[in-house]
User: What shape does this take?
Amino acid sequence: MKDLLNTPVTILSMGFGRDLRAIPRRMELDGRQIDFVDSGLRTTIRHGDRVAQILALSDGEHTFRLRSDNSGGSWTLLAIS
Assistant: This one.
């Protein structure tokens, strides 16, 4: 799975966190579906007029760090631990 880092992923389902922010609930990675059971830290990064969010999500076994471009649903897998 490590060779999939910094690649776009498809988010199949979204949900809402306690603060009513949208968070991914299911994604497709390398042909398989991953269901997230917990969300961790979220941070917002601003660079000029661009804004991105980085989220840590867990499937109960691994933690996935995803980056959203905040402008149309483009998601990138940054890390798996």
The chain has a mean pLDDT of 89. The chain has one domain: 2-80.
